[in-house]
Model the fold of this input.
Amino acid sequence: MEINSIAKGIVIDHIKAGYGMKVLEYLDVDMSKNTIAFIMNAISQKHGRKDVIKIENLTNVDITVLGLVDHSATVNIIDDHKIVKKIKLSLPEKVTNVIKCKNPRCVTSTEHHVPHIFHLVDEETEEYRCEYCDDIVKAGER
Ligand SMILES: [Zn+2]
Done:
């Protein structure tokens, strides 16, 4: 399948196959305002299958959150049919209100106004530690 490249916007490439929906969810894109091309299971030259998302006229996305969903993806910012910026994603050091603490005794479970803050402890295992109760959560297991 071939989809014409966009004149201006953002292309998220090399998303692990099956993760595209999750990426879209986290991006929180206004579906009524933006034109979105969502390609599932495209053949990747690098590794097997991938998902690709193209969003027209959108250039400011929360890269931090994206890195958490799939840090092997690449983000291309397109302007005037050209890639003006290529961003390699990585796991964010600190995330707020993305991962939720599951510890029922944690202050974030009992007090609803408390933000869920997590810190990266191990990049390899993708483990995050809750700021308040030190519970460990794996990034892929939200
Ligand atoms: Zn906690």
Q: What stands out?
A: The chain is about 15% helix and 35% strand. Residues 94-141 form a domain with the SH3 type barrels. fold (CATH 2.30.30.20). The CA atoms of residues 5 and 98 lie 31 Å apart.
